[in-house]
Amino acid sequence: MVFKLIKPAPLTEQVRSRDGFTYLYRAMKIIGWLPPKDGMWRYVYLSWTVMTFVWSTTYLPLGFLGSYITQIKLFSPGEFLTSLQVCFNAYGSSVKVFITYSQLWRLIKAKVLLDKLDIRCKSLEEREKIHKTVARCNQAFLIFTFVYCGFAGSTYLSSVLSGRPPWQLYNPLIDWHDSKLKLWIVSTLEYMVMSGAVLQDQIADTYPLMYTLILRAHLDILKDRIRKLRTDEKMTENENYDELVNCILDHKLILKYCTLIKPVISGTIFVQFLLCGLVLGLTLINVFFFSDLWAGIASFLFIITILLQTFPFCYTCNFIMDDCDDLANAIFQSNWINSGSRYQSTLLYFLHNVQQPITFIAGGIFPISMSTNISVAKFAFSVMTIVKQMNIADKFKTD
Fold first, then answer.
1. Closest by CA position to 295, among listed 103, 99, 77
2. Using N-to-C axis directions, what is the helix angle for 77-102 and 293-332, rounded to 10°?
3. What is the DSSP string of 110-175?
4. In angstroms, rounded to a whole number, what is the distance separating the alpha carbons of residues 67 and 386?
5. Of 75, 103, 285, 294, whose CB neighbour count within 10 A is largest?
6. In sequence order, what are the residues at sequence separation of 6 or more whose Cβ sits closer than 8 angstroms to the Cβ of residue 9?
7. Is the pLDDT assigned to residue 215 strictly greater than 90?
8. pLDDT digits (tens, 9 = 90+) for 280-335
9. pLDDT of residue 399
Protein backbone atom coordinates (compact mmCIF):
# COMPACT_ATOMS: atom_id res chain seq x y z
CA MET A 1 0.00 0.00 0.00
CA VAL A 2 1.27 3.47 -0.95
CA PHE A 3 1.67 5.84 2.01
CA LYS A 4 0.89 3.07 4.48
CA LEU A 5 1.81 5.21 7.49
CA ILE A 6 -1.02 7.74 7.00
CA LYS A 7 -3.51 5.19 8.37
CA PRO A 8 -3.50 4.02 12.00
CA ALA A 9 -1.76 0.67 12.28
CA PRO A 10 -3.75 -2.21 13.81
CA LEU A 11 -3.21 -2.75 17.52
CA THR A 12 -1.59 -6.09 16.77
CA GLU A 13 1.43 -4.12 15.50
CA GLN A 14 3.89 -2.38 17.79
CA VAL A 15 3.96 1.35 17.00
CA ARG A 16 6.12 3.93 18.76
CA SER A 17 5.64 7.69 19.00
CA ARG A 18 8.81 8.24 16.98
CA ASP A 19 7.13 6.48 14.04
CA GLY A 20 5.13 9.69 13.57
CA PHE A 21 8.34 11.29 12.26
CA THR A 22 9.09 8.60 9.67
CA TYR A 23 8.37 10.74 6.59
CA LEU A 24 10.04 13.75 8.23
CA TYR A 25 13.31 11.92 8.81
CA ARG A 26 13.20 10.33 5.37
CA ALA A 27 13.07 13.85 3.93
CA MET A 28 16.05 14.79 6.13
CA LYS A 29 18.00 11.87 4.67
CA ILE A 30 17.12 12.92 1.12
CA ILE A 31 18.27 16.50 1.71
CA GLY A 32 21.52 15.41 3.36
CA TRP A 33 20.88 16.04 7.06
CA LEU A 34 21.43 12.52 8.46
CA PRO A 35 24.81 11.13 7.37
CA PRO A 36 25.92 7.57 8.13
CA LYS A 37 27.99 7.28 11.32
CA ASP A 38 31.10 5.87 9.65
CA GLY A 39 32.51 4.34 6.50
CA MET A 40 33.29 5.72 3.05
CA TRP A 41 29.63 6.49 2.32
CA ARG A 42 29.64 9.02 5.15
CA TYR A 43 32.02 11.26 3.18
CA VAL A 44 30.10 10.76 -0.06
CA TYR A 45 26.90 11.69 1.77
CA LEU A 46 28.52 14.76 3.40
CA SER A 47 29.49 16.04 -0.04
CA TRP A 48 25.78 15.87 -0.93
CA THR A 49 25.00 17.77 2.30
CA VAL A 50 27.41 20.53 1.33
CA MET A 51 25.94 20.68 -2.17
CA THR A 52 22.37 21.15 -0.94
CA PHE A 53 23.43 23.88 1.47
CA VAL A 54 25.49 25.66 -1.21
CA TRP A 55 22.76 25.66 -3.85
CA SER A 56 19.44 25.67 -1.99
CA THR A 57 20.37 27.52 1.21
CA THR A 58 23.09 29.93 0.04
CA TYR A 59 22.85 30.43 -3.72
CA LEU A 60 19.06 30.77 -3.85
CA PRO A 61 18.72 33.97 -1.75
CA LEU A 62 21.87 35.44 -3.34
CA GLY A 63 20.51 34.55 -6.80
CA PHE A 64 17.48 36.77 -6.21
CA LEU A 65 19.70 39.64 -5.12
CA GLY A 66 21.96 39.21 -8.16
CA SER A 67 19.02 39.31 -10.56
CA TYR A 68 17.70 42.53 -8.98
CA ILE A 69 21.10 44.19 -9.35
CA THR A 70 21.67 43.15 -12.98
CA GLN A 71 18.18 42.79 -14.49
CA ILE A 72 15.78 44.96 -12.48
CA LYS A 73 14.71 46.93 -15.59
CA LEU A 74 13.64 43.74 -17.37
CA PHE A 75 11.07 42.78 -14.73
CA SER A 76 7.39 43.53 -15.23
CA PRO A 77 5.53 44.54 -12.02
CA GLY A 78 3.92 41.10 -11.74
CA GLU A 79 7.20 39.28 -12.34
CA PHE A 80 8.98 41.47 -9.81
CA LEU A 81 6.37 40.85 -7.11
CA THR A 82 6.33 37.12 -7.85
CA SER A 83 10.10 37.09 -7.43
CA LEU A 84 10.12 39.42 -4.41
CA GLN A 85 7.56 37.45 -2.40
CA VAL A 86 9.61 34.29 -2.82
CA CYS A 87 12.86 36.19 -2.22
CA PHE A 88 11.83 37.33 1.27
CA ASN A 89 10.65 33.84 2.08
CA ALA A 90 13.92 32.37 0.73
CA TYR A 91 16.00 34.50 3.08
CA GLY A 92 13.76 33.52 6.00
CA SER A 93 13.89 29.89 4.93
CA SER A 94 17.70 29.89 4.91
CA VAL A 95 17.77 31.23 8.46
CA LYS A 96 15.20 28.64 9.60
CA VAL A 97 17.16 25.85 7.94
CA PHE A 98 20.41 26.85 9.66
CA ILE A 99 18.61 27.02 13.03
CA THR A 100 16.93 23.64 12.55
CA TYR A 101 20.05 21.90 11.26
CA SER A 102 22.27 23.28 14.04
CA GLN A 103 19.75 22.17 16.67
CA LEU A 104 18.86 18.85 15.06
CA TRP A 105 20.47 16.95 17.94
CA ARG A 106 17.67 18.23 20.18
CA LEU A 107 14.98 16.74 17.95
CA ILE A 108 16.82 13.41 17.80
CA LYS A 109 17.31 13.35 21.58
CA ALA A 110 13.62 14.15 22.11
CA LYS A 111 12.73 10.88 20.36
CA VAL A 112 14.56 9.00 23.12
CA LEU A 113 12.31 10.65 25.73
CA LEU A 114 9.27 9.64 23.70
CA ASP A 115 10.49 6.04 23.82
CA LYS A 116 10.52 6.26 27.63
CA LEU A 117 6.97 7.63 27.64
CA ASP A 118 5.86 4.83 25.29
CA ILE A 119 7.00 2.16 27.76
CA ARG A 120 4.10 3.12 30.05
CA CYS A 121 1.53 2.91 27.24
CA LYS A 122 0.37 -0.67 27.73
CA SER A 123 -3.42 -0.55 27.61
CA LEU A 124 -5.22 -0.88 24.29
CA GLU A 125 -6.82 2.54 24.74
CA GLU A 126 -3.47 4.26 25.21
CA ARG A 127 -1.85 2.41 22.33
CA GLU A 128 -4.79 3.31 20.08
CA LYS A 129 -4.19 7.01 20.80
CA ILE A 130 -0.52 6.64 19.91
CA HIS A 131 -1.41 4.83 16.67
CA LYS A 132 -3.86 7.56 15.64
CA THR A 133 -1.44 10.38 16.45
CA VAL A 134 1.39 8.69 14.55
CA ALA A 135 -0.86 8.43 11.49
CA ARG A 136 -1.95 12.07 11.91
CA CYS A 137 1.68 13.26 11.99
CA ASN A 138 2.51 11.41 8.79
CA GLN A 139 -0.68 12.72 7.19
CA ALA A 140 0.34 16.27 8.07
CA PHE A 141 3.76 15.85 6.49
CA LEU A 142 2.20 14.42 3.33
CA ILE A 143 -0.27 17.32 3.06
CA PHE A 144 2.58 19.82 3.43
CA THR A 145 4.50 17.91 0.74
CA PHE A 146 1.65 18.13 -1.77
CA VAL A 147 1.09 21.84 -1.14
CA TYR A 148 4.77 22.83 -1.19
CA CYS A 149 5.54 20.74 -4.28
CA GLY A 150 2.37 22.06 -5.90
CA PHE A 151 3.60 25.63 -5.45
CA ALA A 152 7.04 24.91 -6.93
CA GLY A 153 5.68 22.85 -9.82
CA SER A 154 2.86 25.25 -10.75
CA THR A 155 5.21 28.26 -10.67
CA TYR A 156 7.72 26.41 -12.84
CA LEU A 157 5.20 25.37 -15.50
CA SER A 158 3.18 28.61 -15.57
CA SER A 159 6.31 30.73 -15.93
CA VAL A 160 7.99 28.64 -18.64
CA LEU A 161 4.79 28.44 -20.68
CA SER A 162 4.55 32.22 -20.37
CA GLY A 163 8.05 32.57 -21.79
CA ARG A 164 10.16 33.42 -18.74
CA PRO A 165 12.07 31.57 -16.00
CA PRO A 166 10.00 30.91 -12.86
CA TRP A 167 12.09 32.94 -10.38
CA GLN A 168 14.67 34.61 -12.66
CA LEU A 169 17.65 33.84 -10.43
CA TYR A 170 20.98 35.36 -11.40
CA ASN A 171 22.67 33.06 -13.91
CA PRO A 172 25.82 34.47 -15.56
CA LEU A 173 26.47 31.31 -17.61
CA ILE A 174 23.26 30.87 -19.62
CA ASP A 175 21.13 33.67 -21.11
CA TRP A 176 17.56 32.42 -21.32
CA HIS A 177 16.67 35.13 -23.88
CA ASP A 178 18.70 33.37 -26.62
CA SER A 179 16.36 30.46 -27.33
CA LYS A 180 13.49 28.36 -26.00
CA LEU A 181 15.91 25.52 -25.26
CA LYS A 182 18.00 27.76 -23.02
CA LEU A 183 14.81 29.02 -21.38
CA TRP A 184 13.87 25.45 -20.48
CA ILE A 185 17.42 24.66 -19.29
CA VAL A 186 17.57 27.76 -17.05
CA SER A 187 14.05 27.16 -15.74
CA THR A 188 14.74 23.51 -14.96
CA LEU A 189 17.96 24.40 -13.11
CA GLU A 190 16.03 27.00 -11.08
CA TYR A 191 13.34 24.42 -10.36
CA MET A 192 15.94 21.93 -9.07
CA VAL A 193 17.49 24.55 -6.77
CA MET A 194 14.05 25.65 -5.57
CA SER A 195 12.92 22.05 -4.99
CA GLY A 196 15.81 21.53 -2.58
CA ALA A 197 14.96 24.79 -0.81
CA VAL A 198 11.28 23.84 -0.65
CA LEU A 199 12.09 20.49 0.95
CA GLN A 200 14.39 22.16 3.48
CA ASP A 201 11.73 24.75 4.24
CA GLN A 202 9.09 22.05 4.59
CA ILE A 203 11.21 20.20 7.16
CA ALA A 204 11.71 23.42 9.15
CA ASP A 205 7.97 24.16 9.01
CA THR A 206 6.56 20.71 9.78
CA TYR A 207 8.66 19.45 12.68
CA PRO A 208 7.09 21.91 15.25
CA LEU A 209 3.61 20.69 14.36
CA MET A 210 4.51 17.00 14.43
CA TYR A 211 6.45 17.15 17.69
CA THR A 212 3.61 19.01 19.41
CA LEU A 213 0.94 16.64 18.07
CA ILE A 214 2.82 13.80 19.77
CA LEU A 215 3.10 15.96 22.89
CA ARG A 216 -0.68 16.43 22.96
CA ALA A 217 -1.21 12.67 22.68
CA HIS A 218 0.94 12.00 25.76
CA LEU A 219 -0.76 14.80 27.70
CA ASP A 220 -4.12 13.23 26.85
CA ILE A 221 -2.90 9.81 27.99
CA LEU A 222 -1.61 11.33 31.24
CA LYS A 223 -5.01 12.96 31.88
CA ASP A 224 -6.75 9.61 31.54
CA ARG A 225 -4.30 8.00 33.98
CA ILE A 226 -4.92 10.74 36.52
CA ARG A 227 -8.70 10.34 36.23
CA LYS A 228 -8.29 6.61 36.96
CA LEU A 229 -6.25 7.14 40.14
CA ARG A 230 -7.75 5.34 43.14
CA THR A 231 -10.69 4.00 41.11
CA ASP A 232 -9.55 0.37 41.20
CA GLU A 233 -10.81 -1.09 44.47
CA LYS A 234 -8.42 -4.04 44.21
CA MET A 235 -5.36 -1.81 44.57
CA THR A 236 -3.85 -1.00 47.97
CA GLU A 237 -3.02 2.53 49.12
CA ASN A 238 0.67 1.89 48.47
CA GLU A 239 -0.09 0.80 44.92
CA ASN A 240 -2.29 3.86 44.39
CA TYR A 241 0.51 6.04 45.67
CA ASP A 242 2.97 4.39 43.28
CA GLU A 243 0.58 5.11 40.41
CA LEU A 244 0.47 8.78 41.43
CA VAL A 245 4.28 8.92 41.54
CA ASN A 246 4.42 7.34 38.07
CA CYS A 247 2.08 10.07 36.78
CA ILE A 248 4.40 12.70 38.26
CA LEU A 249 7.38 11.05 36.58
CA ASP A 250 5.50 11.00 33.27
CA HIS A 251 4.80 14.71 33.63
CA LYS A 252 8.47 15.40 34.33
CA LEU A 253 9.43 13.49 31.18
CA ILE A 254 6.93 15.56 29.18
CA LEU A 255 8.40 18.80 30.59
CA LYS A 256 11.91 17.58 29.78
CA TYR A 257 10.75 16.81 26.24
CA CYS A 258 9.36 20.35 25.91
CA THR A 259 12.59 21.86 27.27
CA LEU A 260 14.52 20.03 24.54
CA ILE A 261 12.41 21.16 21.58
CA LYS A 262 11.55 24.71 22.70
CA PRO A 263 14.84 26.40 21.63
CA VAL A 264 14.56 25.03 18.09
CA ILE A 265 10.91 25.97 17.72
CA SER A 266 11.48 29.40 19.23
CA GLY A 267 14.00 30.38 16.55
CA THR A 268 12.21 29.04 13.48
CA ILE A 269 8.76 30.39 14.38
CA PHE A 270 10.22 33.79 15.33
CA VAL A 271 11.67 34.14 11.82
CA GLN A 272 8.37 33.06 10.31
CA PHE A 273 6.38 35.56 12.35
CA LEU A 274 8.68 38.37 11.17
CA LEU A 275 8.14 37.48 7.51
CA CYS A 276 4.55 36.22 7.45
CA GLY A 277 2.69 39.55 7.20
CA LEU A 278 5.08 41.12 4.69
CA VAL A 279 5.20 38.10 2.36
CA LEU A 280 1.42 37.63 2.51
CA GLY A 281 0.90 41.31 1.73
CA LEU A 282 3.18 41.20 -1.33
CA THR A 283 1.50 38.01 -2.56
CA LEU A 284 -2.02 39.44 -2.19
CA ILE A 285 -0.99 42.59 -4.08
CA ASN A 286 0.37 40.40 -6.86
CA VAL A 287 -2.80 38.29 -7.01
CA PHE A 288 -5.27 41.20 -7.05
CA PHE A 289 -3.42 43.65 -9.29
CA PHE A 290 -0.89 41.94 -11.55
CA SER A 291 -1.42 38.17 -11.94
CA ASP A 292 -2.92 36.33 -14.88
CA LEU A 293 -4.80 33.06 -14.34
CA TRP A 294 -1.79 30.71 -14.11
CA ALA A 295 0.38 33.08 -12.10
CA GLY A 296 -2.62 33.64 -9.81
CA ILE A 297 -2.94 29.89 -9.19
CA ALA A 298 0.77 29.67 -8.32
CA SER A 299 0.47 32.70 -6.00
CA PHE A 300 -2.62 31.20 -4.35
CA LEU A 301 -0.68 28.01 -3.60
CA PHE A 302 2.13 30.17 -2.22
CA ILE A 303 -0.37 31.87 0.13
CA ILE A 304 -1.44 28.44 1.39
CA THR A 305 2.20 27.49 2.04
CA ILE A 306 2.74 30.71 4.02
CA LEU A 307 -0.38 30.08 6.12
CA LEU A 308 0.65 26.45 6.69
CA GLN A 309 3.97 27.63 8.11
CA THR A 310 2.35 29.09 11.23
CA PHE A 311 -1.40 28.47 11.46
CA PRO A 312 -1.57 24.70 12.28
CA PHE A 313 1.24 24.96 14.83
CA CYS A 314 -0.25 28.04 16.54
CA TYR A 315 -3.61 26.25 16.63
CA THR A 316 -1.95 23.23 18.29
CA CYS A 317 -0.20 25.48 20.85
CA ASN A 318 -3.60 26.82 21.94
CA PHE A 319 -4.80 23.27 22.49
CA ILE A 320 -1.67 22.45 24.52
CA MET A 321 -2.45 25.34 26.89
CA ASP A 322 -6.00 24.01 27.23
CA ASP A 323 -4.61 20.52 27.86
CA CYS A 324 -2.52 21.88 30.74
CA ASP A 325 -5.65 23.43 32.29
CA ASP A 326 -7.51 20.13 31.84
CA LEU A 327 -4.60 18.33 33.49
CA ALA A 328 -4.87 20.52 36.61
CA ASN A 329 -8.64 20.02 36.69
CA ALA A 330 -8.22 16.26 36.34
CA ILE A 331 -5.88 16.18 39.35
CA PHE A 332 -8.23 18.26 41.48
CA GLN A 333 -11.27 16.21 40.48
CA SER A 334 -9.57 12.83 40.96
CA ASN A 335 -10.59 10.49 43.78
CA TRP A 336 -8.29 11.84 46.51
CA ILE A 337 -10.72 12.81 49.31
CA ASN A 338 -10.39 9.62 51.41
CA SER A 339 -6.68 9.16 50.73
CA GLY A 340 -3.91 9.36 53.31
CA SER A 341 -1.80 12.41 54.15
CA ARG A 342 1.20 11.18 52.11
CA TYR A 343 -0.94 10.76 49.02
CA GLN A 344 -2.59 14.16 49.47
CA SER A 345 0.67 16.04 50.03
CA THR A 346 2.18 14.45 46.90
CA LEU A 347 -0.98 15.24 44.95
CA LEU A 348 -0.76 18.87 46.11
CA TYR A 349 2.84 19.05 44.89
CA PHE A 350 1.73 17.60 41.53
CA LEU A 351 -1.15 20.08 41.27
CA HIS A 352 1.18 23.00 41.92
CA ASN A 353 3.56 21.92 39.15
CA VAL A 354 0.96 21.34 36.45
CA GLN A 355 -0.55 24.80 36.99
CA GLN A 356 2.45 26.17 35.10
CA PRO A 357 1.15 25.86 31.51
CA ILE A 358 3.35 24.59 28.69
CA THR A 359 3.86 27.60 26.44
CA PHE A 360 6.09 28.16 23.43
CA ILE A 361 7.65 31.59 22.94
CA ALA A 362 8.91 32.79 19.54
CA GLY A 363 12.34 34.32 19.97
CA GLY A 364 11.67 34.83 23.66
CA ILE A 365 9.28 37.66 22.70
CA PHE A 366 5.99 36.52 21.10
CA PRO A 367 3.83 33.83 22.71
CA ILE A 368 3.02 31.30 20.00
CA SER A 369 -0.77 31.24 19.81
CA MET A 370 -3.63 31.92 17.42
CA SER A 371 -3.97 35.51 18.62
CA THR A 372 -0.32 36.22 17.73
CA ASN A 373 -0.72 34.49 14.38
CA ILE A 374 -3.80 36.56 13.54
CA SER A 375 -2.05 39.77 14.58
CA VAL A 376 0.87 38.96 12.30
CA ALA A 377 -1.42 38.06 9.38
CA LYS A 378 -3.30 41.35 9.78
CA PHE A 379 -0.16 43.16 8.66
CA ALA A 380 -0.76 41.75 5.16
CA PHE A 381 -4.05 43.61 4.91
CA SER A 382 -2.36 46.77 6.19
CA VAL A 383 0.11 46.49 3.30
CA MET A 384 -2.81 45.98 0.90
CA THR A 385 -4.60 49.06 2.24
CA ILE A 386 -1.51 51.27 1.88
CA VAL A 387 -0.98 50.13 -1.73
CA LYS A 388 -4.62 50.74 -2.62
CA GLN A 389 -4.89 54.18 -0.99
CA MET A 390 -1.66 55.42 -2.59
CA ASN A 391 -2.52 53.92 -6.00
CA ILE A 392 0.89 52.29 -6.10
CA ALA A 393 -0.38 49.40 -8.23
CA ASP A 394 -1.74 51.78 -10.90
CA LYS A 395 1.55 53.69 -10.96
CA PHE A 396 3.46 50.44 -11.52
CA LYS A 397 1.15 49.49 -14.37
CA THR A 398 1.52 52.94 -15.96
CA ASP A 399 5.30 52.88 -15.69
1. 77
2. 40
3. HHHHHHHHHHT--SHHHHHHHHHHHHHHHHHHHHHHHHHHHHHHHHHHHHHHTTS-SS----SS--
4. 27
5. 285
6. 15, 131, 134, 135
7. yes
8. 877 777 777 766 666 677 777 788 888 888 899 999 999 999 999 999 999 999 99
9. 54
Query: Which of 282, 277, 280 is CA-nearest to residue 304?
Result: 280
At 351-398, the pLDDT tens digits run 998 988 899 999 988 899 999 888 888 777 776 666 666 665 555 555
The answer to whether 135 and 8 are in contact (CB under 8 A) is yes
Report pLDDT for 359. Answer: 93
- pTM summary value: 0.91
User: How far, in Å, CA of 54 to CA of 102, rounded?
Assistant: 16
User: What does the alpha-carbon distance between residue 104 and residue 383 come to, in Å, rounded to a whole number?
Assistant: 35
Opening angle at CA 153, ends 149 and 157, nearest 5: 175
Closest CA to 287 of 184, 387, 375: 387
Q: Around Cβ 290, how many Cβ atoms within 10 Å?
A: 20
CA distance 299 to 86: 10
In 3-state terms, the chain is what percent helix, strand and coil (to 5)?
Answer: 80, 0, 20
361 forms beta bridges with 367
